[in-house]
Each structure stands twice: as structure tokens, then as C-alpha cells.
Amino acid sequence: MALPVAALRSLRHRNYRLWAVADFVSVAGTWAQVLGVNWLILTITGSATSVGVSLVLQALPTLLLGLWGGSLADRLPSRPVVLAAQAAQAALAATLALITTGGLPPMAAVYGIMVASGLVNAVTAPTLGRFGGEVVPPEDLPNAMALGSVISSGARILGMSLAGAFLPLTGVRGLFLFNTLSFFAVIAAVLGMNRGELHVLERAEGSTDLGVRGSVRYVLRTPWLLVLLALAFVLGSLGRNYQVTMAAMSAGPLRAGASGYGLLSTVFAVGTVSGGIAVASRHRLSVRLLLGAAMLASVTQMASGLMPGLMSFAALMLPIAASAIVLDTAVAARAQLDSPDHMRGRVIAVLGVVSAASGALGGPLLGLMSDTLGPRAALQLAGLATVAATALAAVAFARLSGVRSAAAVLERLRPRPAEIAVPELAGQRAS
């Protein structure tokens, strides 16, 4: 599936071209390190639960400090914060490479770096999101978001593919060194941008506390957004933590080892590209489609637990990953594009907190289920829970709209054209 020429219009802007290239390199490095860290922890501990714990430690700072990070993003100039964030994350990735030089490091050291990376991400991720919206004029922002999703998904494929190929050759240290270098691509791109062509967003005035309360009030005043966030939380925790379940399936029932884990991760990334291209090519995105995709992902997840071999399991990763992009699109586009400039950082922070919370709960829960019940049972039970959550979300939409027909409410909740875009992934990395 190819993107239409009109979908490439953001590439007319030099600043966005620099940002897009840097994002591609940086995200590839990030996902190479994700695979490396997960495999390192499994090698040290032999436990999928330990992988889930690492996700909690990295997500916990966002849960505690994410809203304050969003408030700071709406008050501080974006460019210097972006540069500082990339330098800090590069130093942490280099530290991971250093401690693995002499063999397997102590788990306390690995967990400590995960916490430090999470702290940097909590404080600076909303600013990265704001800056990603400043490299194009407002009229091209939805298109830049769409391209950012496709670029990031493609980078994920590259990162996972390189990791799968080089993990048996270089070990995890090589993956961590690659990620270290990838952060400098973003630094070089930001330094090379024409500052006069940046479309700087309006910054907020007032205290940090008021900023945090304002973001909470904004979400609480939008009931349908609460339903979407709740659905995203359940699907994100029980249906999207495939770093845990793919590793557990590969090391366990599928007996595929590191190379199989790399293959599964690459196939999953291919699915995200397919979903991103499909969404970027659409002019409208209905809630009916959103809920249909959520149901498809849930049912397919249940079925994946029954697959006997690596290839059949990998085949089901495609629809799961593609449908996940649809959910991200509806939540992020409606929340970001309908918010005023001075609220943008705080809205991004709320989305980040929801994502972090889903990882913090789902990672260890799926790991524990995989260790105690087996990976297959974990996939089936989690899929059943997400099926129920999707059905409840449809009922909630119907009640909010005051109609009895679920089909009618889904049509009435069809978003306006300005509200349709792919989540802004450019510059918002999971490190």
C-alpha cells in the first residue's frame, strides 16, 4: 500500500525533512535497544515477570511526574529541552553498553538505568511532542503526524530487524551502542534547522500547579475522551505489551530463541506500518472503525495463544499491530488537534501517563500470567478481557449520546475532518 502524493506535503519543509530523517534513525535505535534490554533481562533472570518489572520501572516516573512534565513543556522553550533530553538519553544508552562489556551485569544496574531513562522521558517527552508540532505550519500538522507514524513504524521495523540480525553476532552491547549513536542524529537535525522557519507554539502563563489541574479538568470535561482513554488503557495493558508475551512465547512454547523473537518483533512492526499507511490515506475515521479494529485485535490475540508454530503465531501479529494504530490515531488526534496551543504539552502528558500506566500494569501482569499459567493462557485470558472492554466502550458511547442503537451512536460520533490524524510519534520516543 502506497501513500498518495498529497500525503507527502509536509516534506516540502526543510525543517520537517531533517526531523523526519532524525526520527527514523532515532526510533530505529530505540527499538533495537528495547529488544536488547528485554533479551538481556531474560538471559540474566530467565523470567518474563522480570521483563515486566523493567517496563514498570521505566513507566513509573511518567506516572508520577508526567503531568508536571507537560506543564513545564507549555512554559519552557522547546529547542534547548529537546537537545538536553537527547544528550541525557545518549549517556544512559552508552552506560548500558559499558556495563555489558564484561559479561552479564547485575540486575540492579539495569533496573537503575531504566528508572533514569524513565525520569528523563517523563520530564521531556511532552516538550518533544510540542517541538514536533513546531517544525511545520499549523495547516500541515495533521499530515506531519500521519507521516510521523509511518516513519516511526518503518524505523521500528529497521530497528527490530537489525537487532534480530546482530543480537546473535554482537550481543546486546552492539544494540546499545547503536542506540547511543542514534540520539546524535536528533541533536544534529535540531542544530541544523532554520530557527526562523519554526512555528513556535504559544507558551502558557501561570503556576505549574494550575497547569496540571488544567490538564485534568480538560480531560474530565470530555466524557467521550474518557471512554477512549479507558479503552486505550485496557488494550494498552493487556493487548499491547507484546514485548513481554512475544519474548515469553519465543523462549517458551515456540522454542524460537533470540532469532525468533527478532522475527516476531519485525513482523509486529510491519503491521504497524500497514495500519499507519491505511490511516494516513483515509479522509475520515469513524468510531465504528475504531471499535471494530479494537475487537479484531482482541479476538486475534485470543487466537494467537492457540497457534502451534512460529510462522502461524507471527501471521497474527500483523492484524493486531495494524489495528492498534487505529486506536492510537483516534485518541491522540482528537486530544491534541482540538486543544489550544498553550495546552498542547499538558494534553500530550495526559496521553503519556495513560500509556505509562497501561505498561506499568500490563507488563508485570502479563509476565506473571505467562510464568504461572503459561504464555498461551496469558494471551487467551488477556484477549478475552479486551473483548469485554471493547464491548463496554461501545455501550458507553451509546449512553453518552442518549440513543439506543449502537450503530447510530457510532455514526453520530464520527469525528470531523480536522480531528483525523495519526498520533504524533516524531520526537516522542520510548527509550
TrEMBL record:
It is a multi-pass membrane protein. The chain crosses the membrane at residues 18-42, 48-69, 81-102, 108-132, 144-169, 175-193, 218-238, 258-280, 313-335, 347-366, 378-398. Pfam families: MFS_3. SUPFAM superfamilies: MFS general substrate transporter. The keyword Transmembrane applies. It is found in: Cell membrane. It comes from the Bacteria. Keywords: Cell membrane, Membrane, Transmembrane, Transmembrane helix, Transport. The keyword Nucleotidyltransferase does not apply. PANTHER family: INTEGRAL MEMBRANE EFFLUX PROTEIN-RELATED, STAPHYLOFERRIN A TRANSPORTER. This is MFS transporter. It comes from Sphaerisporangium dianthi. The lineage of its organism: Bacteria, Bacillati, Actinomycetota, Actinomycetes, Streptosporangiales.
